[in-house]
Amino acid sequence: MSQSTVANRYAQAIFKLASQQNLLSEVGADLKEIKEVLASNDEFMALLTAPKISADRKKELIAQILTGAQSIVVNMVQFLIEKKRLNELSAVAEQFQALAAAAQGAADAKVFSTRELTEQERAEISVAFGKLVGKETLNITNIIDASLIGGVRVQIGNYIFDSTVASKLEDLKKVLVG
């Protein structure tokens, strides 16, 4: 997660606005979608940061592209364009997700496994590991990693719970080799 002070401030401001208007989930969904687009489409970010395009034109483009998004999100992206802080957009989205999850008694978790988890496995992991970190639920992102051999590794914030076969073999190696 980003440690940017600027991103934290913007995320807290947007979180406050979304909370006051009871739009946490809607704003969160919009920011998540924007973050996914930024991660998968380099041309989009290149367009928004192109120095030859004026800030006003970029704001117009954002207003056209984000027609279905909440006005809070559109205004925030336009504000970041105006302040030349668009590089902080993904970090703002991440921090907002963390704030919203905490307010709703949830946390984001990355679960590394050798295969896609079923809904039942996700629910069981959510309950079991949620209790360990004091959260009611976990928003699980499943990441496939064949090098684990078996088991799962769960990362929730700064906590990492590793019960993979690979880590157990490494521990055994340390004991046997010394």
TrEMBL record:
Coiled coil segments of this chain: none
Biological role: This protein is part of the stalk that links CF(0) to CF(1). It either transmits conformational changes from CF(0) to CF(1) or is implicated in proton conduction.
Gene3D superfamilies: N-terminal domain of the delta subunit of the F1F0-ATP synthase (1.10.520.20)
Secretion signal span: none
Localization terms from the record: Cell membrane; Membrane
Similarity-based family: Belongs to the ATPase delta chain family.
InterPro entries in UniProt: ATP_synth_OSCP/delta_N_sf, ATPase_OSCP/d_CS, ATPase_OSCP/dsu
Keywords: ATP synthesis, Cell membrane, CF(1), Hydrogen ion transport, Ion transport, Membrane, Transport
Family annotation (PROSITE patterns): ATPASE_DELTA
Membrane topology qualifier: Peripheral membrane protein
Identification of the protein by name: ATP synthase subunit delta
SUPFAM superfamilies: N-terminal domain of the delta subunit of the F1F0-ATP synthase
Source species of the chain: Solibacillus palustris
